[in-house]
Amino acid sequence: MINRLIVSIILFAFSITSINFPTAVQASTLLGLPAAGTMVSPSPSFEPALIKGLTVHQDNPFLFDFIVDPGQFKVSTKVLKDQADRMIKYFFAALTIPDKDIWVNLSPYERDRMIPASLGQTAMGRDLLAQDYMLKQLTASLIYPQKALGKMFWNKVYSKAKEMYGTTQIPVNTFNKVWVVPQKAGIYEHGQTAFIVEGHLKVMLEEDYLAMSKHQRQPSTSTIGSQIIRQIILPQIEKEINEGKNFATLRQIFYAQVLAVWFKRNIKQALLNQVYANKSTVKGIEQNDSKTNEAIYRQYLKAYKKGVFNFIQEDSFPPLDGEGRGGVMVPRKYFSGGFGSVRDLALITEPLSDKAMAAIPKDFVFSVVTKFNAAMTSAKMNLSDLGDVYGKIVVVREGYDVALDKEGNLVNPNDPRIMESLPTIEYLTSNGAKVVLIAHLGRPNEEIQKLLLKNPGMSKAEARNIVFMQMSLDPVSARLRELLGKKFKPFNSSSQTMPIDIADEIKPGEVTLLRNLRFYKGEEDNDPGFAEALFNGVYAYVNDAPSANQRGHASIVGAPAEIPRVMGYLTEKEMKILEEVHAKAKMAIIGGLKVKDKIGMIRQFLKADPQRRVLIGGAMANAFLQAQGIDIQRSLGADSENVGIAKTLLKEFNQGPDNRIEIPMDVVAVNNFNRHIKSRNIDFSKAEKVPKDWVIVDIGPITTAVYIKWIKETTFWNGPMGAYDRLPKYASYGTRNIARAIAWTNGFVGGGDSLAAWYNDSILPPGLRADSKAQILTGGGATLDYLEGKPLPGIEALSDASAAMTAVHTTHGLDAAMRTNADVKGGIDLSRQDAALRVEKDADGGVKVNVDPALIARIEHEGLSEIVPVIINIRPADIRTLFGTSSPQ
């Protein structure tokens, strides 16, 4: 095998002495990088000079022989010596820098963590950054729709879309979560020489290398794009990484690091291993210009903002139904995909522990598995701060205010407010807690008053009994029993049971749900006596009801300060999403009935960023239309108060050259909501008017098309665009297509009525909903209050992290990652090179060294600052003289 691999090998012998290291190669890599917005094509195959082997001298710890393959082209001795000098620096950088710190990750949102500090001082770190920049430009370029490979990719994407959704008229936002990691490296040892016989770098999607770990608890959520990326794009990138000229430097670094890892792992008794390895001693191997990394980063930011391409193709917007309404030309977006979404760029990865690495399948020789930084910025205690909960009562406030049909059944058995509560319940029961769930459903008091008004002869007790039966949490209990099995223990929902009353009736690891909290007067009044009874004998309180955190009710804010009050996984997750919306959303689509309910959120959202825009739909759009002088006839939402608020907002934010509040250009109106319904599109740009006594029920197709054009990955959606639930045939057009656009572009869905629309199969097909990575908020009012800048009482009432019961709050690997629903940006990570290494030894047992203990003591005392490598001569050598007849075949 070696005889076939090595054609012309030059042996570089060098000695470590107290002389200066040769001058570093100038950081010219920056000038060779493609400019921002430049397409990068796959390069011709190229075999660069590579360090292929290393000879260790048993009795001289400062003498090494590097075996350097000059590569594809013959070069002068000086050029080869310069290249060898650079690669030897790579070797020593990989030797002195801890393996866990050898990674780079250019990201516009993690400037201070794009490269570990010690690696960033070296020429190797600089060159890895440059290669990461090249990787991102190449990945984006390969899916350009007007190139052959890009055409093949998009044809398959839309064929798959047609198969799954029955249409090809969808914008597909591509990805850039590409990882380059070592897959395998083979070394053969003979005598005092080690030689690399094979090496390969693997390219993969982030979701794939998470799936290699047994810690991955959730099924894959691969999008159409990622499925086809694996088939078409990744093989091309992997070929380019391992063969193309664009990534010759990366392969040089890879081979040098393979030898460094072999040296650290196998020659542990060597002097350099004892006084230099993993010490981050970079003198002699540092880059000359410390500003080069910053220059690469600035160029990356420029490229990130500009993109490789932003291809737009006009397509006919699909009609709503057989009546032929629609046909408006709207853009199908092709994102460059080179830099991922904001969500994809949020976190930098760190290697998992050796224990977690052991979970990787043996047949996958090497992969980098990551853990996420799941720390909450809210500085509140979470579940990991609870300590030992075995046998103790833990009360969990849930947000089970779900929709029931007329028969009292769950409208959506898989309502996210139920399904998303399971991780917290599973965590507590698996740790032996006695878990008591508490929640509310509906507004019983209002329903009782309505019933009494309709039935003057009915007693209040009779009305209460009817409403209590209608608003029982029994349907939720039945669903939890299906999901949790025998660990769920139901209790009589009509009884006024408190947690302390059932302390002896539930066992460690069991869970139950008490009756509707709003059946108690003290709940909404935050009565101290009710709160005392509710939390009597309770060890800890968990808030896992983000949909209720805007309320000051007893079950939200009444837990006593003497017990731990912590966030559950769902609350923690949604607080993080809210922080992301607050920081990153550039567009908001707001619907619903009343402007006055959302004026604070709209004003705060627009004031926070002059680049933001709000698109108005739903019944509240009628107030804005009337404020503009449009006669809306009998349409809802346009009372004098709401119209006045709309005028104020338009005056405040639409005075400049660009409107920051957009209102419908056309609408759909109907003559009534009952029988013999007639509908019509009203185009205000053509001075068309709403017919007398008609009602506006939806935004029109032109407005829908324009709104979709403005939707970005960071768009926040709250509120339906029309009365889709009452008039699905006539008023679902806007809501359906806005929901699909949000799903395709992975935006934010802001709870409440938006959540109901999102989980309505006629609005959003289950397949598209499953593929979408849009971030969902179960809280409606809490979401609006947070974005308005109001404090959330439910969060304010939790224990501060400084009062944590455990001394150190840690992130628990991928389990924590799944709870925070975080995403990771791809890059180049060589931090676990040792896991890729396969070593074969000859009959003599491989390389051996002798080390003088007195020399070690002297070096440790005097330091190694001036003892750096230098090439002392170059001499040709036949590889067969190194391995003789026992070389591997």
Would you report the number of β strands? Answer: 27
| Major sheet characteristics | 7 strands, mixed
Unreliable runs: 1-29, 212-222, 310-378, 804-825, 848-889
Kindly report the average pLDDT value. Answer: 75
Percent in helix: 25-40%
What Rg do the Cα atoms give? Answer: 32 Å
The best one-word shape is globular
* Proportion of strand residues: 15-25%
End-to-end separation in angstroms reads 4 Å
Number of helical regions:
33
What strand line-up does the widest sheet have? 26-5-6-2-3-1-27
Structural class: alpha/beta
List its traits.
889 residues; alpha/beta; seven-stranded mixed β-sheet; 33 helices; disordered N terminus
Quickly describe the structure.
This protein is an alpha/beta fold and 889 residues long. The chain contains 33 helices and 27 strands. Helix content is 36%, strand content 16%.
